[in-house]
Description:
This protein has helices at 29-37, 39-48, 70-77, and strands at residues 8-13, 20-25. By secondary structure, the protein is α+β, with helices and mostly antiparallel strands.
Amino acid sequence: MQESPCKKYKLTGSFNLKFWHTMSLWETDDEINNFYRNGIHLEAMKKSKTFFSKIQSKRITVENNELGNWRELKKIFTL
């Protein structure tokens, strides 16, 4: 995320590192789509398959000018 063109981001992982969540703020849909499907992110997803047998990805898009908090994000994910 540090090398991406996103405006802001947050990362969090579980204690045992089995779960990772990211939240990021982008200017355009094209920017996030390009990041998600190419480059560093794509390579990270490929490599993560060697560490984890089950990988799930869920993308939720919310129009906002600031990052939310994790509590709000977790509510959205459980819907």
